[in-house]
Automatic annotation (TrEMBL):
<feature type="binding site" description="axial binding residue">
    <location>
        <position position="155"/>
    </location>
    <ligand>
        <name>heme b</name>
    </ligand>
</feature>
<dbReference type="Pfam" id="PF08768">
    <property type="entry name" value="THAP4_heme-bd"/>
</dbReference>
<protein>
    <recommendedName>
        <fullName>Peroxynitrite isomerase</fullName>
        <ecNumber>5.99.-.-</ecNumber>
    </recommendedName>
</protein>
<keyword id="KW-0413">Isomerase</keyword>
<dbReference type="InterPro" id="IPR014878">
    <property type="entry name" value="THAP4-like_heme-bd"/>
</dbReference>
<feature type="domain" description="THAP4-like heme-binding">
    <location>
        <begin position="12"/>
        <end position="162"/>
    </location>
</feature>
<dbReference type="InterPro" id="IPR022939">
    <property type="entry name" value="Nb(III)_bact/plant"/>
</dbReference>
<feature type="short sequence motif" description="GXWXGXG">
    <location>
        <begin position="20"/>
        <end position="26"/>
    </location>
</feature>
<comment type="function">
    <text>Heme-binding protein able to scavenge peroxynitrite and to protect free L-tyrosine against peroxynitrite-mediated nitration, by acting as a peroxynitrite isomerase that converts peroxynitrite to nitrate. Therefore, this protein likely plays a role in peroxynitrite sensing and in the detoxification of reactive nitrogen and oxygen species (RNS and ROS, respectively). Is able to bind nitric oxide (NO) in vitro, but may act as a sensor of peroxynitrite levels in vivo.</text>
</comment>
<feature type="binding site">
    <location>
        <position position="123"/>
    </location>
    <ligand>
        <name>heme b</name>
    </ligand>
</feature>
<dbReference type="InterPro" id="IPR045165">
    <property type="entry name" value="Nitrobindin"/>
</dbReference>
<keyword id="KW-0408">Iron</keyword>
<comment type="similarity">
    <text>Belongs to the nitrobindin family.</text>
</comment>
<dbReference type="InterPro" id="IPR012674">
    <property type="entry name" value="Calycin"/>
</dbReference>
<comment type="pathway">
    <text>Nitrogen metabolism.</text>
</comment>
<feature type="binding site">
    <location>
        <position position="32"/>
    </location>
    <ligand>
        <name>heme b</name>
    </ligand>
</feature>
<keyword id="KW-0349">Heme</keyword>
């Protein structure tokens, strides 16, 4: 059973339901890659200040849900502002970093990119949109991406359960 921490910062209230570790499966697709299935773990941690530390890792799975290889890793900070305003700062192992802005409330968090920087060897990513929702106690999310000359479109979606 999930319990709110005693030291939860008031600005974090709209996303408090996200705290903890989530695991599950998802699907990826994009015009420049073959569709794939993946497993994923998300961790949202809080220490009383107005932000969550965020860490996500994924792995490609086969038709039997067996791990084939490691996949994406991202980490950052979900900065909670007054009145449900949110800022997300993310870094990816693939060589790019992003600034996101959005809003949270009623069991939902929606974010869009404001700025993206990349290293010389990283693929071009130009925009993103993320939607997280609390659906029947699970964390569902969808990530739309614009990259490598493609317009903004669905890329990843998953359903995760609280670990």
């Amino acid at each position: 059973m999930f319990e709110l921490p005693d030291n939860l910062h008031p600005d974090c209230g709209p996303v408090a339901w996200m705290l903890g570790t989530w695991r599950g499966n998802g699907r990826g697709d994009y015009p420049t890659i073959e569709p794939y299935e993946y497993g994923q773990e998300l961790i949202f941690a809080h220490d009383g200040r107005p932000f969550f530390h965020y860490m996500a890792r994924a792995w490609i799975v086969d038709e039997n849900n067996e791990k084939v290889r490691e996949a994406a890793i991202e980490t950052g900070f979900l900065r909670c502002r007054p009145e449900g305003k949110m800022e997300l700062v993310l870094a990816h192992h693939t060589g790019f970093a992003e600034i996101w802005y959005g809003e949270a409330g009623d069991g939902k968090l929606e974010l869009a990119t404001d700025a993206i920087a990349r290293t010389e060897s990283a693929k071009e990513v130009t925009a993103g949109h993320r939607l997280y929702g609390n659906v029947e106690g699970d964390l569902l999310y969808a990530y739309d991406m614009s990259a490598v000359g493609q317009p903004l479109q669905p890329h990843l979606w998953a359903r995760l359960q609280r670990a």
